[in-house]
Amino acid sequence: MTKKIFLTNDDGIYAAGLSALEIAASKRNLSCFVSAPFNEQSGAGHSITLGSPLRVSKFAENRFAVHGTPTDAVYIGVNTLMGEKPLFAVSGINKGGNLGDDITYSGTVSAAMETFYDGITSFAVSLYITDFVAFKNETFAVCADFFFDEILPEIEKKIGKSELYENPKLFNINIPETIAKSGKVPIKWVPFGKRLYGGDVLKRVDPRGKEYYWIGGDQFGFADIDGSDCHEIRRGCATITPVSLDFTDEKTLEKIRG
To answer: pTM score > 0.70 for this model?
Structure first.
């Protein structure tokens, strides 16, 4: 079985979180193939570019940047650039958490969904940050080590290695910024919670007198659902959520059929 892994993100090819994963993987004798967006694409969701050409910049033998969305980077990386199926894929490490409803907006999670669609066990990894001003990029290195040394073995143990890699699965993982203090935090298997964004939109005027809008809102609000990913990350725990992409409303379908 190949030891090559596929890495991507939505923060762009120059992101510190991506570099931290590359370094951590190489220390564990895992060969990386990187295909990431050239620029930051936070909030891009699962969008794919169909109406314009896409260019690719080659940084090294196994390191590419696609001038498009995270999904574009995965689609081209897996189907054209890589040339072989990886052992697994990691999207991240995202600068900021992806909890609850965030996954529908998140380019990080969507990139992992795309590799999962390609039959690859995939992990979306995000670093939950409460103070972006005081945040230090060095935390990404600690987070990456924790993923490879603690999170991944935990998943392999609970799922089983053969099951995990022979039958592709998708996981959303959040690690709290407190990981920087000791290098370890408790790990919890949790369902998704409910994020509360606040619905704020900031209206401003540019120097030419034209109005523009900035989507704002509370980045840390969530519903009071005990045991959810939102709750446990606030308690200082790393969270693992197995993700299903079956959108069928079976109850309604069965009711209609009945």
So the answer is: yes
